[in-house]
User: Which sequence fits this backbone?
């Protein structure tokens, strides 16, 4: 009564199915379907502009001394970071979370190697020399941040039913972060240590740890960390000078010269830039005797002096766009793990940019954190580029899942059941 399908018909069906799968893979690729991923060109534009500002301002600073090697080095690190971004973009973040334990153990091993064989500069041992003939050094502690974000996301996803307990929701995450913080603190990097701790508490808050125990623990650890700062003469002087100046409006001249000199010159440079600035290469406070770290932590003051309020607001706007984009990606992540990772990466970028701007404008104690994508420093630049690659991977997967749900003939309730079953199988 019914004719059996012929071999030719089966072959045609097979070819049609293969073409449909090929079209689906092409649509899921943001390079071949840019219209379906509107945030990709936005992120690319912001990164391109920030890296362009970095190279221009480094050239402006080095132009005063007749050099140019730092500009070339920054461009090479930027290119390597772009390659790293594209490579990490192609790796599903679910795979990264499964590798997070090994990455965490590897990071511990690298930090121990830095303590044993690292390069010591200004009393701190934070760097490893990788290319001695070109004086190229890397700071492995920078990559402790994405490592911490990934392993905490893996932990909170795996033990999501126990987060409400004090031991599982607070003590274990703090122990995971505490190992990294302790090793970084031994490198005498107080700023990086404090930032890692803040990232841990931010991830705990987003994951749903109980507020009152978490706040109490944060208060206790904050007092302990402040005590460690007070035991260090240099950092104690910075804190005392900052508090005196903000409480009394004035500070002793000797204390200011020893601790607040960079911040004072930075504020003066931004003020003298006014609305339109002095023009590129025309700023004079970027020279070593005024702002010693003009290419690193205080490069924003050079932007303010030479490009004025217009330039500084443009840079702040680019950071604001990246933070908003990261927040949107976190809300549209395909699962809880992606949401945690995207939130942590956004906190990492936004927190570092905000702290640097507060220090440069003398609203916070100098912590030695560079301005993301702009300050000189290959390790920090490559770390943030890799983080953007992970963020883009989460975004692409979230958009693909959203399209599949909209195109699915199943009711939304049944789609949710299938999604929860898939997540249970994956983890």
Assistant:
């Amino acid at each position: 009564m019914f004719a059996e399908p012929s071999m030719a018909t089966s072959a045609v069906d097979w070819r049609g199915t293969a073409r449909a799968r090929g079209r689906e893979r092409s649509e899921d690729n943001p390079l071949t379907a840019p219209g379906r991923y509107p945030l990709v060109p936005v992120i690319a534009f912001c990164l391109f502009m920030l890296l362009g500002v970095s190279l221009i301002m480094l050239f402006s600073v080095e132009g005063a001394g007749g050099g140019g090697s730092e500009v070339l080095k920054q461009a090479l690190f930027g290119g390597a970071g772009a390659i790293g971004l594209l490579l990490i973009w192609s790796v599903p973040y679910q795979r990264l979370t499964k590798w997070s334990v090994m990455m965490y153990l590897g990071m511990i091993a690298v930090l121990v190697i830095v303590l044993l064989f690292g390069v010591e500069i200004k009393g701190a041992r934070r760097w490893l020399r990788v290319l001695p003939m070109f004086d190229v050094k890397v700071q492995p502690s920078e990559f402790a941040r994405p490592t911490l974000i990934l392993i905490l996301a893996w932990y909170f996803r795996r033990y999501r039913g126990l987060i409400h307990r004090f031991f599982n929701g607070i003590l274990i995450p703090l122990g995971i972060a505490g190992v990294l913080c302790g090793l970084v603190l031994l490198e005498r990097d107080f700023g990086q240590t404090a930032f890692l701790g803040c990232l841990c508490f931010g991830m705990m808050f987003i994951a749903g740890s109980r507020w009152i125990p978490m706040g109490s623990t944060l208060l206790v650890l904050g007092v302990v960390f402040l005590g460690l700062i007070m035991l260090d003469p240099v950092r104690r002087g910075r804190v005392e000078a900052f508090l005196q100046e903000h409480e009394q409006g004035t500070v002793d001249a000797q204390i200011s010269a020893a601790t607040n000199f960079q911040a004072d010159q930075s504020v003066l440079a931004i003020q003298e830039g006014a609305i339109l600035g002095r023009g590129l290469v025309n700023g004079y406070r970027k020279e070593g005797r005024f702002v010693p770290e003009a290419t690193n932590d205080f490069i924003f003051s050079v932007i303010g002096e030479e490009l004025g309020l217009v330039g500084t607001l443009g840079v702040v706007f680019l950071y604001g766009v990246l933070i908003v984009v990261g927040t949107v990606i976190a809300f549209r992540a395909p699962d809880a793990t992606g949401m945690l990772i995207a939130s942590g990466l956004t906190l990492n970028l936004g927190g570092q940019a905000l702290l640097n701007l507060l220090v440069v404008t003398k609203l916070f104690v100098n912590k030695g954190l560079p301005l993301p994508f702009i300050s000189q420093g290959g390790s920090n630049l490559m770390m943030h580029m890799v983080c953007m690659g992970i963020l883009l991977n989460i975004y692409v997967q979230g958009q693909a899942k959203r399209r599949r749900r909209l195109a699915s003939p199943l009711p939304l309730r049944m789609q949710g059941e299938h999604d929860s079953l898939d997540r249970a199988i994956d983890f």
Remarks:
- The two ends are 49 Å apart (CA to CA).
- Residues 37-93+272-347+370-402 form one domain.
